[in-house]
Design a protein that fits this description.
The complex is a heterodimer of chains A (about 600) and B (about 450). By secondary structure, chain A is mainly α. Chain A has 14 helices and two strands, in the order ααααααββαααααααα. Chain B has a five-stranded mixed beta sheet with strand order 3-2-1-5-8, with no helix packed on it. Classes of the chains: A mainly alpha (about 600), B alpha+beta (about 450).
């Protein structure tokens, strides 16, 4: 072989960065890039969280805060949604965790295209900067709703219809470029750079989740990109892709023949897979957290892998369930309701297998474990409420009500964030080399878990009542009883408590970075490769002299007859210490 | 152990919350009971799964929490169990899906005896159209839309001439009669939703969408827009009044056909109006310039459609209904001089043609703050220059006397004006001025409006 991929190069030939800038800023190291991605995503996520708090202030206590008016409310709402879905969740799960974990878990020194990887982050940062700048252009950020449905997105009567929307579309375009560079890297690294012995069916589920999600992203984001480009042309070049002939505030506009529904199809062809682009890495990571802290193999590994792949595939044929009452041909409802409910089967299998992983386990109630269990609870809830909305006839009364808001926050917001916290706490000792404060972590869990549930459970019932979403205020309506307004105030208080509790998390992460006790090598006793590096945290090149060789799958926990309750993936069979007659050693 | 207790409590709490919740579907008022049934089936199945999965998980945590010397059971797979679980899940899914698809089949196809009604949405109002005697709705096109043809009906289409037009957010329907709704938007996406009916559908510009339902009981039900349509989306409301057939017929007969609205008389006659105005002039002035001492606002410079609507409101006590609005009540009492709708049209036509008169500002305030407030709360409908907009049902406010504006905004805010059930435009105004919380905010806005023109 003439060419040796970067990832396969021996340690000596890697150019270790020397200066501060090449080490921490213009870094090619996937771990540094992961942290850059992660920190940026969390910072912009905190902003989105604050925006949601402002919305809750208005909804819980209408007309009390003079800086929130119908325009700013819609802007907060739009930016909150877009940031959370795209710039936080997608970026943190794939750019953050994907970057950090892929090379370590497959047993290689870095991504196969490190320069592209670095470029991916800086491009992502640019997209974030453009997005933030949109708050400050004349007219402010777009308030069209995160779905950016035309025509109102481009017309007077919606905040940011001039410059705000252009900034948003440009930012999305840049983000997609960044994602494509990252996604190609993730997929290629997993396919090409796995170390000796790491067959696909030996990979930890985290990798399966990230792999499938990246592949889906590469197929789905282009739909959003073309939609953004077409909308931009409608706005700037006078085309009519999405703009039919219409009157805007009594004035005829200069478009005709376009279809607003075309946009919705393109958007949701991206938008539905996007839900799983976020969910699948979370599914994978939570599986590994559960297995590690239950000291038990993940139940039904092969079924779990196939479920990820099948969900990924099916997610491309369910998009129009977001459009049952959009005015598209009503007969589509039969097809999309059927595919949507079928996708519930592999999803349900995953839930069963997570729960069955706990069964007959040896459950260590660590902070990551608590969050992982919180995930199962909230995901079950959110998944089941999806069966209402997916079933086309039931969707009719519930569409565009608070039931929808409650559903997608439970399934995509809360449950995914539960996994993110589980993952951050789980891998924190590896990334920082220090242990976080357990007591603070537990408090963070309790307030977040119980608080988010009491925030979103009652919202479903406002939806049954028929409260529309995206309302600045409900005002007086005969069908809305006074008690619903009190309930809204209660939801707001609950949400604000949860928001404040995140300070515990931030404080914990920052404080432990310097003051936390040294974590040492593999503190959780995990089997997968990322915990088997010679240094903690792993150094540039990850593996020191020799990349590891894999001898087993990622879930050899509590193997009968074996002395320790886990066998690392890179431990050859002959090195495994078998049980003697004495009682086995206790893992602390 | 805390986790086990909390999980069990959350499951129990969820079940209790569900059964104790006063927040539930509004009482059904249409034929879509089958939707409610499907929801109940789904509720039972998903509810059982939710309780079972989470209680099982809580039990597993209780039983297998780490203890000294404990070791996990090693069992990578259990084919039999996995196949069983998959099978049972598939069965549960089928039980939920099948009735849903049957209900959807009936939703897709309207019965052949359904009557037609058209709903037109525009930022941020509803209008309705019935097909008239020929049973056929006339063709429409956005390029026909004007102040005199708000529905955009094709004047050449004979089918449209007898179409009955309802220029109001309030729709009436006869009980027990299936209706096919044709939904049409003139500008952006909207969604016509009536929670009591369970049915809803988007309005999409460039196309006509549809749904059908049969109102099954009389009463008044809220219409809400459920597809984000801009700043005042939350204030795009309406009502459906379901009534007996004869009451409905009477209501329908009180509305003009398209041909009526195109007639000369419908535009009003200024010459007849001039004679009628003689009485008005004693307070509002010969030039329509208004008189602050008599609490009579300027009427010159206002549009005919607005004058007409307000006079009709006074006549029907839709305005001036509240004891707090003494001047409005005075005005309502004066309406005896205008015996019918045609008289109102004529006098409005005369007033609308009056040359504009200058007013003297009496209110000062922080116009910079006023401008900010105006941009956020007023300009989308009333226009950035305050010239008003027929299509948003917003009257001209620039050049109006500031003391009058201040009083009316205050009335709206306090519900002294605009809360009458027949005044759906006023209802909207009540919602939209709630952001002008204090007196100073109102004065600042009015001071800013003084600078427009």
């Amino acid at each position: 072989m003439n060419h040796i991929a970067f990832a396969d190069q021996p340690q000596e030939s890697m150019h270790h960065p020397q200066g501060f800038f090449s080490k921490y800023v213009w870094s090619l190291d996937h771990k540094v890039i992961a942290i850059q991605y992660g920190v940026t995503a969390i910072m912009v996520g905190v902003l989105a969280l604050v925006l949601s708090g402002l919305m809750r202030l208005q909804l819980g206590f209408p007309d009390t805060f003079s800086f929130i008016n119908p325009n700013t409310y819609l802007q907060f709402m739009t930016m909150h949604g877009m940031i959370m879905v795209v710039y936080l969740l997608t970026a943190l799960l794939l750019g953050g965790f994907g970057n950090y974990l892929i090379p370590l878990m497959v047993g290689t020194r870095d991504m196969v295209f490190p320069y592209l990887n670095m470029l991916s982050y800086w491009t992502y940062l640019l997209s974030v900067i453009v997005l933030m700048a949109s708050f400050f252009v004349p007219g402010g950020a777009t308030g069209a709703g995160w779905t950016l449905y035309p025509p109102h997105t481009l017309l007077p009567g919606t905040p940011g219809h001039e410059l705000g929307i252009i900034m948003m579309l440009v930012s999305l375009g840049i983000f997609i470029v960044a994602f494509t560079m990252g996604g190609l890297n993730y997929v290629t690294t997993i396919l090409q750079a796995r170390t000796k012995g790491m067959s696909l069916m030996r990979m930890p589920l985290t990798l399966w989740g990230i792999f499938t999600a990246s592949l889906m992203g590469l197929l789905a984001f282009p739909a959003l990109l073309v939609a953004a480009i077409m909308m931009m042309l409608d706005k700037l070049a006078g085309t009519s892709f999405f703009m039919p002939a219409l009157m805007s505030m009594g004035e005829a506009i200069d478009h005709s023949g376009g279809s607003p529904l075309l946009y919705q199809h393109l958007f949701w062809f991206f938008g539905h897979p996007e839900v799983y682009i976020v969910a699948l890495p979370a599914f994978g990571m939570v599986s590994d957290v559960l297995a590690t802290h239950a000291r038990k193999n993940i139940f039904g590994y092969r079924m779990m892998v196939w479920a990820i792949v099948i969900i990924g595939g099916l997610s491309f044929v369910v998009w129009a369930h977001h459009m049952y009452v959009s005015g598209m041909n009503l007969s589509f409802g039969f097809f999309f309701a059927t595919t949507t409910l079928i996708i519930a089967i592999p999803t349900a299998i995953k839930v069963y297998n997570w729960v069955l992983t706990l069964w007959r386990g040896n459950l260590h109630m660590t902070v990551p474990m608590l969050f992982a269990i919180g995930f199962i609870f909230t995901f079950t809830h959110g998944g089941l409420s999806g069966l209402f909305l997916g079933n086309v006839a039931i969707d009719v009364p519930l569409a565009d009500t608070y039931f929808v808001v409650a559903h997608f926050h439970m399934v995509m917001g809360v449950s995914t964030v539960m996994v993110l916290f589980a993952a951050i706490y789980h891998w924190y000792p590896l990334i920082s080399g220090r242990m976080f404060n357990t007591a603070l972590g537990k408090w963070h869990f309790w307030v977040t878990f119980v608080g988010t549930y009491t925030t979103f459970l009652p919202m479903h019932y406002l939806g049954f009542l028929g409260l529309p979403r995206r309302y600045f205020s409900m005002g007086e309506a005969a069908y809305v009883p006074e008690s619903a307004h009190s309930l809204n105030a209660g939801i707001s208080i609950s949400a604000i408590i949860v928001m404040l509790a995140q300070l515990l998390f931030i404080a914990n992460v920052i404080w432990s970075l310097k003051k936390g006790p040294r974590a040492g090598h593999n503190p959780w006793g995990a089997t997968s490769l990322e915990w088997q590096t010679p240094d903690v945290p792993p150094k540039h090149g990850n593996w020191g002299e020799k990349v590891p060789e894999v001898h087993r799958w990622a879930y050899d926990y509590s193997v009968p007859g074996v002395k320790a309750d886990f066998i690392p993936q890179n431990m050859p069979s002959e090195a495994v210490e078998m049980e003697d007659d004495s009682p086995q050693g206790e893992r602390s | 152990m805390v986790l086990v207790v909390i999980l069990v409590l959350l499951v129990l709490g969820t079940v209790i919350f569900h059964f104790a919740s006063p927040w539930w579907f509004t009482p059904l008022a249409s034929n879509w009971g089958s939707i409610d049934t499907t929801i109940n089936i789904t509720f039972w199945i998903t509810g059982l799964v939710f309780v079972a999965v989470n209680l099982f998980m809580a039990y597993a945590i209780f039983k297998f929490k780490h203890k000294k010397g404990q070791k996990s059971h090693y069992e990578p797979e259990n084919k039999k169990l996995e196949i069983w679980l998959t099978g049972i899940t598939a069965l549960g899914i089928a039980i939920m899906l099948a009735p849903g698809l049957f209900v959807w089949a009936s939703f897709v196809k309207a019965p052949s005896d359904a009557q037609q009604v058209e709903v037109v949405g525009k930022q941020w109002h509803w209008m309705y159209r019935f097909p008239g005697e020929d049973g056929e709705l006339g063709r429409t096109d956005p390029r026909f839309v004007s102040e005199h043809n708000p529905f955009g009906l094709d004047p050449q289409d004979p089918a449209g001439q007898d179409d009955i037009l309802v220029f109001s957010n309030i729709l009436h329907l006869p009980v027990g009669q299936p209706h096919k709704f044709w939904l049409r938007s003139q500008d952006v996406l909207h969604n016509f939703a009536v929670p009591h009916f369970r049915a809803k559908m988007d309005l999409v510009p460039g196309t006509v969408t549809r749904m059908w339902l049969e109102p099954t009981r009389t009463g008044t039900f809220d219409v809400v827009c459920m597809q984000l349509c801009g700043t005042a989306h939350h204030a795009m409301r309406g009502k459906v009044v379901v009534q007996e057939q004869e009451d409905f017929d009477q209501w329908l007969a009180s509305h003009p056909t398209f041909a009526d609205t195109q007639s000369r008389a419908y535009r009003g006659d200024q010459d007849i109006g001039r004679a009628l105005y003689a009485t008005c002039a004693s307070c509002h002035g010969q030039q329509g310039e208004g008189n602050q001492g008599l609490n009579a606002p300027r009427v010159a410079g206002l549009d005919q459609w607005y004058l007409e609507r307000q006079l009709a409101y006074y006549k029907d006590r839709v305005r001036g209904y509240n004891d707090g609005d003494t001047y409005g009540q005075q005005m309502a009492a004066m309406m005896a001089v205008l015996p019918d709708r045609q008289a109102i049209r004529n006098v409005s036509a005369y007033m609308a043609a009056m040359p504009e008169t200058q007013v003297t500002p009496t209110i000062t305030g922080n116009t910079a703050r006023g401008e900010r407030l105006y941009r956020n709360f007023c300009s989308d409908c009333h226009g950035s220059d305050g010239s008003g907009n027929y299509h948003t049902n917003a009257p001209r406010i620039s050049g109006q006397q500031d003391w009058y504006l201040e009083r009316q905004v205050t009335y709206f805010r306090d519900g002294i004006r605009g809360l009458h059930p027949q005044d759906s435009h006023g209802n909207q105004m009540v919602m939209l001025v709630q952001g002008l919380r204090d007196e100073q905010a109102i004065r600042d806005v009015v001071a800013y409006i003084n600078t427009l023109d």
